[in-house]
Amino acid sequence: MRYVFGAIDQVTAQIDAKQATLNSKLDELRQIISPLVAEWEGAAAESYQDKQRQWDSAALELNQVLEAVGSAVGQGNADMQAREAANRGMFA
Question: What pTM value is reported for the model?
Answer without folding.
Answer: 0.82
